[in-house]
Each structure stands twice: as structure tokens, then as C-alpha cells.
């Protein structure tokens, strides 16, 4: 099963006030695939995701959902198709975890309709999948950063949309929980065909979990495609200003980026002998 919903941006220019971040950009999300958007800080990753989620209107061009201008569609109709986990979500003061996750069901509530067994099932499943069921009665503002992040992911899952956009979903999580969350999103994608796009900072996790990478630099897309096609030493140096080697991950076979720091290059001393700069601190 694969989502048959389409989402793409056509010739969009995006920014904040007088500051333009992205100009004349075209991008499409592959239906039923996991796409990771990568790039250095302030390159436009989150700005692009905000536009795809209808949080930021383009000053030029348009974002299109299933052939219609995203900004002209009814809000609840969009929310039943497209879910979002923003970068720094804010919870109402004092709200408990169960109630926050239940808010993910609001797009499915119609006028005069009652809370249903299907709503209960969606919330319970989201709590279980994210390992937050035991936190259901806790106040969100009492939780650690990692716990809060998993609760916000649970709310997005409870929404049960065919397209899911996540801005840095592994923020605040230790490596074990990062892998758990990405495994969860992969399972969701494989089982339901959910189209997933997420901003990630860890190139190696992005390459391992994404079917497709979009590499951005200074508001432009430099490369898009399978991780094996996108992640090259030349691209890493252009995007991040960092020399690297790219080798196969021994576990997954996907590309893994090995940074070459200034203190780990071999240089020749004036006497002609090779020395490691790492020892010259």
C-alpha cells in the first residue's frame, strides 16, 4: 500500500519579511517514500518544510497538494491528509500527555460528532508505538526534552495522515531513541505507505533511513535522489565545507560519511617525515 497523495512546490520563493531564503525552487515528494532534507544550518531546510506544511506562504509560486493550491484548501481537509511535527512545538500550559496526543484526532472530528472508538484506538496505538503510554497522565511540561519529543511524535502519529512532515524529529533524543524513532517511522512507511519528509542533521542516519535525499545549500537544491547518488565527498564539501570520505555502511550498505578533520590529515614535516597533526595539539 502506497499513499496516492502528491505534494510539490512549483517555482516557490520563500522568506521572512524582506529577507529571501529560497528563490524559484521546485521540489516534489515521492509518494510512499521517506525523504530526508539535509544541509548546513540556515540553508533553508526548515523554511522549505514550513512551506510544504502550509505554515509559510510563498511570495511567488505555489505549493500543490493533489493538484490543488495548498493555501486554497480548507484547513481540516489539509489536516486529514498532511501531518506536521514542527521544530519547536509548544504545548498548552498544564496539559497532560494523553490529552495532547488526543489533539492529533481533531482534524477527524466533525461538527456535532462524538469521540469514537477509532479515536481511542489511534491515540492508544500512537502512545504505544512511541513508548509514552506510561506518561499519559503526566503533565507535558514536567517531562524531559527527549520524552516531550516522543510525545509530539505520538500526536503526529495519532493524526493518521498519509503525508507526514517532521522538522528534526530526533532533536533532544539520545542515539538509542533516535534509532527507535527512525525505525518507527520506517515501519509506518512500510506498513501504511505513508509519505514521510523530514529534516535531519545526521547525514549517516539520513542515508540509512531515507529512500531519497534532498541536499540544500543557501536556499537551493544541489542534489536530489537516492543516498548513494547524492552523498559524495564533493557534495559534502560544497554543502558543509568539510572534507570527507564516503564509504559503505558495514551494517546497512548505505553511504556513511567519515569527516576528515584538520587534526587527522597526514602532512610531511620539513625533514620529509610524515607526521599526524593530531599529535601536535
UniProtKB/TrEMBL annotation:
SUPFAM superfamilies: P-loop containing nucleoside triphosphate hydrolases (SSF52540)
GO molecular function: ATP binding
PROSITE patterns: ABC_TRANSPORTER_1, ABC_TRANSPORTER_2
Primary location: membrane
SMART domains named in the record: AAA
Domain ABC transporter: 7-243
Key words, A-Z: ATP-binding, Cell membrane, Ion transport, Iron, Iron transport, Membrane, Nucleotide-binding, Transport
PANTHER family: IRON(3+)-HYDROXAMATE IMPORT ATP-BINDING PROTEIN FHUC (PTHR42771)
Protein name per its UniProtKB record: Iron-dicitrate ABC transporter ATP-binding protein
